[in-house]
Amino acid sequence: MRCLVVADLHYALPQFDWVLSIAPRFDVVIIAGDALDIGSIVDFRAQIVVVRKYLERLASKTRVILCSGNHDLDERDEAGERISRWIGDLGNLGIAHDGESLTIGDTFFTVCPWWDGPRVKEQIGVQLEEAAAAHRGRWIWIHHAPAANSPTSWGGARTFGDAELVQWIESYRPDIVLSGHVHQSPFVKDGSWFDRIGDTWVFNMGQQFGPTPAHIVLDLDSNRAYWFSAAGEQSIDLGKPLRRPADTVEAFPEWLIAGSQAAAQAGGPIPATTHPETG
């Protein structure tokens, strides 16, 4: 199975175009939160309409998984906690989203919402407990905020990660956790796009400007993860212990080369500017 993982697109439509162009090369496209941008001059309701159309087109090409991030919250629930109602309404498009778990091939995916208070945090705890009892084979979580006190949540001066996520990882020991949120982590000193907590690999691809988003490719058949960004191309072997630095990619598998060529036609190769902020 081959997964394309992005996050923090923040209503950057050229990046959505790029994802759409390369999506058919992958078995799953995962958007780990913040599809929208609360700071945009574009009306939030209009953003939802446009992004929903992109997601509908994506879902016609491959499987799509989307979790909410802090920029995706459009309503408050009865307890006053912010939630992403529009993401909760994506089920009729066949898109796996907040609160759901699903099996694709031999991999079990669990999609966690952004939690804004104790009620949703408790829901995630229950969701993970139930998923732990149900899952078989490889287990991957999608959770927008990265783990606290990890290079994947390091902002250059302090960590912006989720301490609750660390506790959940230690309790349930998933194989992989995919996050975003802290845009600069892979690009600053002492930050990284990958880390390991016990036996669990945790990832944050970072965020950058330009037509091509920073992204991770999981090739689960070969048990490798690839990271592509303005900083270059790196790879790690998921079957080996944590080692830094990651390998510089010298040769790509043929399927990935073909996918990169298709993406280059849509938006050009990796851009040269990163976006050093947290969202």
Structure description:
By secondary structure, this protein is α/β, with parallel strands linked by helices. The chain has six helices and 15 strands. It has helices at 13-22, 44-59, 85-88, 118-134, 163-172, 254-267, and strands at 2-6, 28-31, 63-66, 75-76, 82-83, 101-104, 107-111, 138-142, 176-179, 194-197, 200-204, 215-219, 224-229, 232-237, 247-248. Strands 3-2-1-12-13-14-15 form a seven-stranded mixed sheet, covered by helices on one side. Strands 6-7-8-9-11-10 form a six-stranded mixed sheet. Strands 4-5 form a two-stranded antiparallel ribbon. A hairpin with a 5-residue loop joins strand 4 (75-76) and strand 5 (82-83). Helix 1 runs parallel beside helix 2 (44-59) and helix 1 runs antiparallel to helix 6 (254-267). The longest helix is centred in the middle third of the chain and has 17 residues, at 118-134. The chain is globular and about 50 Å long. Residues 268-277 have low confidence and may be disordered.
Total beta strands? 15
**Gap between N and C termini, in Å?**
30 Å
Which residue ranges are poorly predicted, with pLDDT under 50 across at least 5 consecutive positions? 268-277
What is the number of helical segments per DSSP (H or I, 4+ residues)?
A: 6
Radius of gyration: 17 Å
The ordered H/E elements are EHEHEEEHEEHEHEEEEEEEH
Structural class: alpha/beta
Helix content: 25-40%
Q: How much of the polypeptide forms β-strand, as a percent range?
A: 15-25%
Strand order of the largest sheet: 3-2-1-12-13-14-15
What's the story with the biggest beta sheet?
7 strands, mixed
- Estimate the global geometry from the Cα principal axes: globular
- In round numbers, the mean pLDDT is 92
